[in-house]
Amino acid sequence: MRWWQNLALGVAATALAACSASPGQPSPGQPSPGQPSTGQSSTGAPPASWAVFRHLPGVVDLAGPRADGSFLVAVAGRLLVLGRDGTLRPFARGADGYQTAMGTEPYLALAGSYPDRGNHCSFGTNTAFALEPGSRPGVIMISPQGLARRFASLPPGDSPSGIAFDSTGRFGHRLLVTAESRGRTTVLAVGCDGHVSMIAAGAPAMEGGIAVAPMTFGRFGGDLIAPDEGRGLVYAVDPSGTVVTLARSGLPAGGDIGVESAGFVPPRAAAAYLADRFSARNRHPGDDAILRLPAAGLARAGIRAGDLLVATEGGAGTIDVRCAAACTVRYVAAGPAIAHAEGHVVFTS
């Protein structure tokens, strides 16, 4: 029996709790956000700024780095490789290459060669995966050689909204996908054999650059971290399907405004990168560019390896979340006012 036929038989429990403090009981199906252990005001100028690295029409997400330090870039329904030297070249072209509809949000994830728990297979180094929105939602696999094929299908009517790879193993070294339907989110896991299983259903809205936390990230180590732009919250989802509110962003919230992009800072990070997608008739219309936050900016803002950076869709306002015994949230960077951030925050090192 397919997993979605089992939804009526039982759904993983979704508990919505606070990172800290005790604000009281939430209403059913709503989060109970706690107050982080340090201030999180977005007033005043932050210590660092995103700046345009290069203009790139149609850019929507980045994934990587790959083994050679390059990144994959989703651009106008196609893929490019962004080299360490900043050069761009086409990737996955031709009859067996990759192409999807323009104007959608085909977010990317790069998998690793860790063995999938319970299966005698692995995704392989430099294998990429892209969400496929539309009437036949799914996940597309792109091999290191640039060959693309449909890898997994999602339930009809679902709108895929985020993708990440579990490198920690807490989710069995699988791909994690969020999909929205009627204002609620289902969290799915996809094995290296293409089998789709459910982690959680009926979760709050989650969209954008979801990421799996390193094991050093306090009690949320190994959890899936996902932003909620509508409420300005950041959630953590554990392998049992429990959803908790990790942090309040303290930044403007709402559609096309609130927290959207996330990424964890690696050791010796040299710079962070973020897609700034053009979006016509929007308060923050974007600039068709890749934004960059250099090492000097990371250092000036006190951003460390293992921290979580989360940026808003409108203006790329960025918080730094650090979790150990408790979690702290700081407003650390802003982008150009025009910026319309999408997808993941990625890093060179």
Give the end-to-end Cα distance, rounded to a whole number of Å. Answer: 45 Å
What is the topology, as strand order, of the major beta sheet?
1-24-23-22-19
Mean pLDDT: 88
Spatial extent as radius of gyration: 19 Å
Sheet of most strands: 5 strands, mixed
Query: How many β-strand stretches?
Result: 25
Q: DSSP helix count?
A: 1
User: What's the name of the CATH homologous superfamily?
Assistant: TolB, C-terminal domain
Could you list the spans in which at least 5 consecutive residues all have pLDDT below 50?
1-41
| CATH-assigned fold name | Neuraminidase
**Fraction in beta strands:** 35-45%
Helical residue percent band:
under 10%
Name the overall outline. globular
Q: Class, according to the CATH hierarchy? A: Mainly Beta
CATH architecture call: 6 Propeller
